Amino acid sequence: GAGVSQSPSNKVTEKGKDVELRCDPISGHTALYWYRQSLGQGLEFLIYFQGNSAPDKSGLPSDRFSAERTGGSVSTLTIQRTQQEDSAVYLCASSPGLAGVNTGELFFGEGSRLTVL
Amino acid sequence: TQLLEQSPQFLSIQEGENLTVYCNSSSVFSSLQWYRQEPGEGPVLLVTVVTGGEVKKLKRLTFQFGDARKDSSLHITAAQPGDTGLYLCAGGYTGNQFYFGTGTSLTVIP
Questions:
Q1: A39 pLDDT band (50/70/90 cuts)?
Q2: Extended beta strands in A4-62, E state
Q3: Are B50 and A103 within 8 A, CB to CB?
Q4: Confidence (pLDDT) at A8
Q5: Mutant choice from B37, B56, B96, B106 vs A, greatest count of A C-beta within 10 A
Q6: How many CB atoms lie within 10 A of CB A43?
């Protein structure tokens, strides 16, 4: 597809289980972002990948959260031992990521809604 | 941690009224973006401003970047029900890093 694709769109899990959320960015986009959004609230930055550079992990809330980006394309956000406070919509975005230019548009997926029971 | 605070958090107005949404920070940004998000969808870019004091107009929407590049405002003239949504500002840092604001939920009543 032409846009950012995220899966699953909805995930219900039990407390303590691990979950994986997938993001397929727009082809050719070198920058990839993960954000978390609680109901009707703003976006909380989680992690940012830019090309082959080391990712900016400064927004990850705990060591239960990790993300990787394979081959500079698809990214997976993993949450281990999920807690109820992890319930939120996880949004992925990609951008052309031109070096030295930070006015680029972020293109978002529709998000993965995670519910931890 | 939210670097950008938006106000008001919620806004409900009648069709035809004017409104202003504010985005404030103690940090200096190299660019400032505004996005609009509808339920069940990801945010969509409305505008990018990059110069302190810059004003951009998009039909009934007017965006301004503060002189010190720490704040921004979004003004909507003669609001319409189609303007309903969550408005988000996002501050850009060098290296393509973006931090989003706390969001303003706008409801325009017909």
A1: confident
A2: 5-7, 10-13, 19-24, 31-37, 43-50
A3: yes
A4: 97
A5: B96
A6: 30
The tokens for B28 are 């200096």
Stronger pLDDT, A30 or A98, i.e. the higher one: A30
Cβ burial of B10 (10 Å; 0-12, 13-18, 19+) is: exposed
Q: Which amino acid makes up residue B31? A: S
Digit-coded pLDDT (tens) for B24-62 = 999 999 889 999 999 889 999 999 998 999 999 999 999
In one letter, which amino acid is B98?
F
CB A90: neighbour CB atoms within 10 A? 22
pLDDT band at A71; cut points 50, 70, 90: confident
Residues 27-86 in A contacting B (C-alpha not used; CB under 8 Å): 31, 33, 35, 40-45, 48, 50, 56
Q: Residues of B with CB below 8 A from A91's CB? A: 42-43
B92, B107 Cβ separation under 8 angstroms: no
Whole-angstrom Cα distance, residue A2 to residue A26? 6
Residue A51: which region, alpha, beta or left (left: phi > 0; alpha: psi -120 to 50)? left
Q: Report whether pLDDT(A67) > 80.
A: yes
Q: Which two tokens stand for residue A92?
A: 């992925």
CA B53 to chain CA centroid, nearest Å:
15
